[in-house]
Task: structure prediction
Amino acid sequence: MKAAVLKAFGQPLEVEDMPEPPAGTGEVLVEMAAAGVLAYSAEVYSGARGYLLELPIVPGPGGFGRIAAIGPDATKLAVGDWVYCDPTVRSRDDVLSPDIILQGLTAGSEGGMRLQRRHHDGSYAERLRTPTENVFRIEAIERSSAKYWCRIGALLVPFGGLLAIDVKAGETLVVNGATGRFGSAAVELAAAMGAGCIIATGRNESVLEALASRYGSRVRPVVMTGEETADRAAILEAAPGPVDCVFDILPPAASPAQVRAAVLTVRQNGRVVLMGGVGMAGGPGLELPYPWIMRNNVAIRGQWMYPREAIPRLIRLVQSGLIRLDNGETTCFALQDINAAVAHAAANSGPFSNTVIEM
Ligand SMILES: NC(=O)c1ccc[n+]([C@@H]2O[C@H](COP(=O)([O-])OP(=O)(O)OC[C@H]3O[C@@H](n4cnc5c(N)ncnc54)[C@H](OP(=O)(O)O)[C@@H]3O)[C@@H](O)[C@H]2O)c1
Result:
């Protein structure tokens, strides 16, 4: 089979022939049709992000394809089924605290390195071997529409956060960092899930306006200035009533003050989920006031990725028409042109832009 291989950090990927991986017990082999390219892939392949990858490796975080072979213990899958391949692979020998890798992207931790030795290669290949529990059937689709389905990857991350705080119909939600790829997807999902009002924050006014025009009058854009007190007041002023939940997905470059500006708007008994990368590049902590959390019964939780159950639910939201996959521009590249795809993804990182490899 053909696959794109990263042989050394900082080198271009090389597309070459390699043997098809055999599927063992508890695994499936998928004939890949399409796989998304992350905007920051170039930073991963240059080594700048410090992601844990044992080289050489076939990168590529999940995608869509058809089952080519199943292990002896699968009971419902059949060869030819169309499936989503979720890159979030969990170790099976510790139900409470599994090691988690993102197949084809990062081992995440030293423990994950052991898991990565088996589920080593990712989806930029004609065939992907992955654990059986990592594939999710979708209805039969035309091969040409697999590229649109790749958008599921961007939707699943915020879906995990919105489920974590149990966003309910009619509630007011603040999406802090709404102009980014995941934040804009959170706005779209919250609208589909029935939120009554979505306060979308960001500095980029044109993207905020685009969100309001795409997802309707329930979206209220609030332009952030970086001044914590003023930004908090602006969010509260835009809200039609108490803020029920806050969803934060700001990147490592953002400051704790930018997070606090939103978090401290939540009402008594409100819920907050932190999904961003603030602090990952060092710097001060979040420093939320203990008495405020305690006296107001505020629930604050983190969320990395999403539970497996979120995937069939999101697939149903798509199949019901509540989430549209052809929302934005999708640019496709052949596997042979993987390096051009990585450069394109980096240069077109906006919320309504998708870069896909078609196999
Ligand atoms: N928890 C998880 O499972 C998970 C999974 C994947 C990624 N993440 C995190 O999610 C973060 C966001 O990812 P993304 O792909 O949505 O990023 P993105 O597209 O780059 O969006 C980030 C947004 O943050 C805003 N921002 C505010 N302050 C900023 C600052 N000082 N510097 C740069 N941007 C700033 C920017 O909007 P404005 O310019 O309009 O303010 C930008 O649009 C990642 O950095 C990562 O840490 C979490």
Remarks:
- Residues 152-164 form the longest helix (13 residues).
- The chain has a mean pLDDT of 96.
